[in-house]
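Fold this sequence, please.
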Amino acid sequence: MSTKRIAWLVTHDAYIDRRIFFFADVLQENGYTVKLFPAAYTDFTNDRDPEYVVRPLDWKTVKLYGLKTGALLANEQALLEAVIQKQEQYHAEHQRYAAGLGELSGARKSKDGYTIKTVGERSGFFASLEKGGRCLVYDSRTRHVTVITDRALAAEAREYERAIVSADLNKVAGDGYTMLGDIAVAYTEGPRGRALAAHCKSADNGVWLFNNDPPELYCGVPIPWGELGEDELEGKRFDFREYRKIVYDFSPILERVRRSLRHEKPDLVYVADLPTLPIGVMLKEAVGCKLMVDCHEWWYKQARLWESTMKNKIEMSEKSEAELYPRCDVCITVGKYLAQDMGECYNKHFDVIYSCMSADLSLAYTERERDFWSRYGVPRGSRVAIFQGSMTELRNLDNLARATRYLEDDCYLAVVGGGPYEETFLKILEQEGRKDRVVMVGWVNQSELLKFTVNADLGVLPYSAMDEYFSYSVPNKLMEYFEATLPMLYDVSMKEISMVAGEHGVGVAEDLSDPDKFGRTLNALLHDPQRVAAMKANYANCKNKFSYESQKAAFEKILQENGLLND
């Protein structure tokens, strides 16, 4: 009889990439129970976390509701019951409860460091104990006690309590969250499992969570960074001090992992990219699990492009990759060119898994809508090209903006995404492009993204290679366009994209570093429905090559070859 295996997935990302969910999906389908340890993140207006996601949050009890006096500390129970008894005696004599302690014979205002109070009327009374920030309030009407562990924290929680109580649970269930002012309410994982939580986007200082059974209110704040010393795991010590100082401080995630080790030990640890790979290495040595690394990027080369002035970080990343990748049992990356070069560099085999859509993000229930773009002011019958993804530097977005000056009045570019480069993009668009031809949709959750992709006529991948490494890029949008069978326009310098799209006849290559060629080709393709239709038809021969099912089969083969599937 096969035993249930445990897989832990670790990433430095706060907003979890759908590629990671793919690996979680396949592992679960093959009998693994999974936990996913990402960075702290509390924005409920994005796609909700699956229940197996464990954020590095510290939970502090704020209030305990509906307790019986017998559940209290012995001295607190005795003090409260003394007040309750005196109030009941007073009521029997006066047909009302005492307005304050002064009316109760022999009642003490303080004892054992507690301040004692009571407030009564004809129908009932309250009694309270307070010591430091801790306060207990007894309500004679319910015969229950509310325990407030920190009065200042409880005062801060009031608007979140109101939001949780007022939330439309049907809307939370349907949309994943609901907004009350600037407070988002959604379900998330807390100290007792799934519960209703509130978070204020503008404050961004943690999560307030209401657990229903038993009724409790918690505050969750990110686990703080640990001291910069040796790391300990299961009695073993590891020295990643320089790494944490220069590359990435993984200590909050490690602390969350450490706590989970009290309850279970993984058979397999999957790590996404270099930043949290030391955690995987420590787990492998401490508990004897298998270690799998999935390189979305070649990290030191990525740093050399995006953080070119950070010499120490580039050098430490290069050194760490050379030391840590060979210690992994399985190495995976996103494309064939990258796998070949990384394998030769580290004398280690790298398997390839393309970034397909995860099971619940496939196109199965997404269909083209006739008037989809009308909600963005695009007239019916217009042709729409789409760029979707993060707006950052080095993505040739400046030439994408310039290329729009060639778009005629029946053509539009939809930009679905956002990021730090958006302001620069809009300035270039204003000065050198055609702002009236561009629809800025903004950031869209992964669960909604394919609705935009499938309703476009052409997908744009504007990236232009600045070096050999960049030419190996396999952006997520490449596989999103594949999922939507969307014809593409891409740059001739991008080797992996050219292999995947060009060799299958589903895209057109152009020198997109030249904004004039970019713009003319973009406009021409949008006015050539026969050519676009021919590219779309070519998907019939290759779409499944990069589907969830095909990549699932490829990953299962890797698991089988490494003894990671149950018989």
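The mean pLDDT is 93. The longest strand covers residues 57-67.
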